[in-house]
Amino acid sequence: MKRLPIGILGSGKGSNCRAILERIRSGDLAAEARLVVSDVLDAPILDMAREFGVANAYLPPGRFRTRLEPKIEEQLVKTLRDSGVELVVLAGFMRVLHEPMLKAFPHRIINIHPSLLPKFPGLEAWKQALVAEETVTGCTVHYVDERIDHGQILAQREVRILPNDTVESLHARIQVLEHELYPAVIAEFCKKYNEASQQVGGWRE
User: Fold this and answer.
1) Active site residues
2) Which of 37, 30, 173 is nearest to 14 (CA)?
3) Which of 20, 72, 84, 110 is placed for a possible disulfide with 68 were both Cys, Cβ 3.0 to 4.6 Å?
4) pTM (2 decimals)?
5) Nearest-10 Cα torsion for 166, 15, 155, 167
């Protein structure tokens, strides 16, 4: 079975990255992590990549707070292509991607968000759900487009909000489901990649 080459982008601790790398190492996920990239020099996700023996790189983000400078985003495209990446997986990457990446990897960039999108996009979505007195929230895997937490939804899992939930307890339960859902969605891409690799012209989502 051919392994789907993936690149993982993250800005922080990388708990979803760990869940993915553990599934790959155990043989449960037919993917190959070619590269982990972070826009934060000392991000724990880069240490995690080293722990799993995965190539890793720091990407200087430039002068903007929420996006990459165009030349830097083009550099990111080249880095991922040079590594043979076919699917880009965002794992807590705090930058909005724009044309260079979206054009280079059409329907090949996915993200996971801790709410039932389209509800509660943006930061601390679990806190937003609590403040709004929701009874159910969850997590969503979606394609990435030029808007924040907006692209086509691929899969969702629900988490019931308990009467005694705190911000921390709710977030922890959502993360448990994230660590199950994200590898499961990537596994579907792996399956399609394998099926398409046997056809002329390669794979298209």
Assistant:
1) 113
2) 37
3) 72
4) 0.95
5) 10
